[in-house]
Structure formats: structure tokens, C-alpha cells
Amino acid sequence: MAFAGGNPSLRRGGSERDAILKISIVRHATAQDRGEPLPDIERSLVKKGEKEAIAVANYLASRHAAPDLMISSFANRAIETAHLFAKAFRYPRQRILLRDALYGNPSIEDLANEIRRQPDKVRSLMIFGHDPAFSQLAAYLIKDFRELLPKAGVVVAELPVNRWREVESGSGRLLEFTAPSLLKEQKRQLRNDLETRLARSMEAVLAGLHRPGAAAFREEVRKSARRTVKSFLKTLNGQGPAPPAKPKRRAT
To answer: Which residue range is the domain that position 190 belongs to?
Structure first.
């Protein structure tokens, strides 16, 4: 990959491949309501939030390498989100750093400065925090990115620099933007596509044997395709069908 105008760090001996940093910006998942009688920093994830974080973390871990460093806000909900991501990426929880700069509603410059302080040996960074600050940070780093991060939403971007202190506004290139609702829609589309293709294949085989009979069994074929695809997708999600029951011993 070549960069317009050249990059001074490349001329100092770094390869073009090395001169790419990667950042993942993660908004915490759904947490307890603000109205509950506890300090904001102590609000924890609810069951829905845990499921959101697990789904998104597992999806990203199947597509991206583990980050070199995870940094989280001090808020419970951000830390708990980070722990679930760490599990998916097999990243040691004890290596998650906590930073005041990521909590509350920090300015863009505060967040950018926190990113620029990271050591050069860190090539990929994942940060966990809050909105609206994180949506603003994504828009600051990635030119023309204007999406708002929903709960458990994640933006992954490449930065064409060799040192974090060289990160500038608009320098990032979007690699991925995902969120629980987007994953659900993606899964729904996949399921519908598989069901349609499988049903058509089954209908074609039956029609080749006996066309009138195939037409009569069309609804049964479609139901069978739905059941098969549902079972198949559960297997992909690690929820495979239960092992067959052991045969009962006959009394002798």
C-alpha cells in the first residue's frame, strides 16, 4: 500500500506493511439504567448487554487478530465489556489498562492525546468507553465517517502511520463497523438466503424424479429447509445439536 506524498517514517527504515496501526473503538454494551440508585461509574452490564458484547466480540475475533493492547474506562460497564472481549480474543484480563481519559464525556483532543501516548511497540489498540465521545472520536479519525455507535458498537480502522504520536484527524481508513443490530440483520439475511437455495435444490431433485409429486410436497420441502438451516446455524454458533441419547439397555 502506498501513501500519497510518502511517509517520513517509511524513509527511516520501516516497511509499508509495518507503517500501519490499527485501532478498535468499542462502546460499552447495555448497562443498568441511570435512574438506579448507584453511582454512574458502578453501573454494570445487564444480561442483554452481556449477550450483545459476547456476540460482537466473537464475531470480531473470528475476523481479526487479538489486539496488542486493550485500554478501558474505569466505569464498570466498560470494564465488563472489555472482559468479555478479552475472553473472545484470548487476551489476558490482567493486561487491560484503565484510564481516566476514557471515562465520562472527554473532549476529542483528550481522547486523541491518550491514543498518541501509546508505545510504538503496540501495533493494534482496542479501547472501551462511552458515547457521545467515542462516536465523535471515530468521526475525528476516519474521514466521512458519521455513524453513531450503538451499545456494543465497534469501529475498526487502519491508521497509515508508524507511531501513535503521528495520528491525525481524518487519517484513518474504515475496516469494519458493526453492532448487535447489524449482526442480527446479517444473520437474518444469511438464514433467508440459505433456506431459499436449499429449498430450490431439494425441489429440483424431486422434480427430476416426479414433477407433480414435487409440486405437492413444496411446502414440506420449505419447512424441511428451514429446520435444516436453523440446526446448521446453531452448529456454527457452537450450539450444535445434542449428542444422540444412549440406547436403553433391555432387561434380561
So the answer is: 184-236
Q: Is the dihedral of CA 160, 162, 164, 166 positive or negative?
A: negative
Contact criterion met (CB below 8 Å) for 116 and 57: no
Q: Write the CB contacts of 151 (distance below 8 Å, at least 6 apart in sequence).
A: 27, 28, 29, 30, 49, 52, 179, 180
Residue pair 26/127 in contact by the 8 Å Cβ criterion: yes
Nearest to 71, CA basis, from 132, 19, 116, 136: 116
DSSP state of 212: H
103: left (phi over 0), alpha (psi -120 to 50) or beta: beta
Mean of the pLDDT values across residues 22-51? Answer: 94
Task: Say if residue 149 is in the same domain as residue 226.
Answer: no
Same domain, 150 and 196: no
pTM value is 0.76
Question: Collapsing DSSP states into helix, strand and coil, what is residue 101?
Answer: helix
CATH code of 63's domain: 3.40.50.1240
Task: Mark 122-137 as b/e (b = at least 16 C-beta within 10 Å).
Answer: ebbbbbbbbbebbbbb
User: Both 124 and 229 in a single domain?
Assistant: no
Residue finishing a domain among 142, 157, 178? 178
Strand 124-129 relative to strand 69-72: parallel, antiparallel, unpaired?
A: parallel
pLDDT, residue 90, reads 97
